[in-house]
Fold this protein.
Amino acid sequence: MRRIVLYDESSRDLGINVASRINAEAKEITHKVFPDGEQYVRVEANVGGSDVLYVTRLYPNQDQGLIRVMLLLDAVKGLGASRVGLFIPYMPYARQDRRFLEGEPVSINVMLNVFKNLGVEYLYVVDIHKPQSLEGYQGFINLKPFKLYAREFKNLSNPVVVSPDSGSLWRAEELARELGVEYDYLEKHRDRYSGEVSFTLRSINVKGKDVVIIDDIISTGGTIVGAAGMLRSMGATSINVVATHCIMIGDAEAKLTKAVDKVRCSNSILGKYSQFDVSQLINQ
Ligand code: R5P
């Protein structure tokens, strides 16, 4: 079946790279925002009978991005596409993956259900907050970037991989396995009402080591800055950070510059630290 990759202005680089990796044609869609904030999309490519993969970054302006995806899905359906997939490297709303407090929604399910109901047959996301969120959604796949990350840390002299909380421990384990080194985790708590982060002292072996902290998201930087402080107080020699999705709210970059030696992120969100190209994770 003929394959076409569609992309918009948020994702030109990714769209073109992905298309060349999977031997597909690449076409930019027309996308405009009206003065009242409503959006317009138009697909001018002939996608009838084709397998269409829409590549788009949903951050920043994730709510606008989600509406753009919904409009695009209807447009390609109207043109008679045979199969439709999405590549959304940073999946927003994924952190609300359960009802932490009574009366809350399971936001990630809302988003995934919208995609399914609009006919999305396959979805690629990168390092989603909890891979389990995709269970039960056939064809929805979490791409893991840890092999790309491992190449960067091969030369550290005495590395150990640490996750800032137990929820990311599996990431530390996977990266540590690639590097053939030890891994551990810190005990983070987040106040569900204020959002404030704190750590409980947990004795782990980082003295004299080059620590690699791995997490999925850096938002305010509070998690990484807190973790780095704790690891330094335990005698870590250097603190290297790798996170897939670097949102970097407010003064996050300034706080991180003071707290850690180096930050590396993927280009799922574009920014100063975008280093790993997530289009390399698409192979089919
Ligand atoms: C939460 O569980 C995530 O994995 C990240 O640790 C969190 O989103 C980071 O947020 P912040 O940078 O605001 O601490």
